[in-house]
Write the structure tokens for this entry.
Amino acid sequence: MTQAQTITSKAKSNLAFALIDLPEEERRHMAEFYAFCRTVDDIVDEPGMTPRERHDALNRWIEVINGGDVLELTELEEDIIALIQDLELDTTPMLHLIEGCRSDICQQQPLNRDELLDYTYCVACCVGLTSARIMGAGEAAYPYAIALGHALQMVNIIRDVAEDYGKSNRIYLPREDMDRFGYTLEDLRGRVYSPQLQELLQYEADLAEKFFAEAEEEYNRLRPEDKAALIPAQAMALIYHTILDKMKAGGFRIFDIRYRVNTFHKLWLLFRTKLDIDPQSYYDKSKAYYDKLLGFLSRPGRKDEK
């Protein structure tokens, strides 16, 4: 197993799950890119490094991406260099991702939504832009990737409010928004669940819904071949929108519940995405599989088989 495959398989993320149905080459490339994203994120988040060491590690990745003279390349670094060259990737989004993650080393609470969206663009939309290219979609898919990136990251921010503050002392909810609804840092520190918190998180959820709606509009404008290439991304949209729906229905109990979607539900959402692309084809395949399974289960003497 390659370094990229090891990192991807250990992550157990929604993105890694959504890649299972890609063709082999695209899946390998996406595993490499995901491993890069995971590694950059871990440089910032994993314990045991000083701020200087974190900055130096991120700077090394900038040199790798820019084709600098880096000594003793790791396997993953070699894979990313090859990926950039083979697909002629625009590296600007990858560099923005690094700088977005860098801002978390000494994170400052965003003052307003503009600052928040600058951050979500770097750490999520830029991932979407490069992913769309790797998965084979054209430039027409870029507005979709940007809108979806904002939506997914907003869901992450809402879901992880307690964890981000408790583990890393990070606050991504804009100060203006907290002031608007009268929810204070002292409330967050004390894990206070209140109507003010519910209203605040509903306000942020409304922003996520706005971006989900924009992404859906952009997706519906795409050519069939671009839609087919973006099945993993659209599956991600359904998974994260389901998480958002659960949080809204549950009253945003973020201090008590880690909202998630189970594996069977994820499989259904992935299948549903494929159905939306080519319903007749996947209906035929599903019916053939069902008929085959039914035939196996109804074979005479099957109970005696071992």
Remarks:
- Residues 302-306 have pLDDT under 50 and may be disordered.
- The domain at 107-283 is CATH 1.10.600.10 (Farnesyl Diphosphate Synthase).
- The two ends are 33 Å apart (CA to CA).
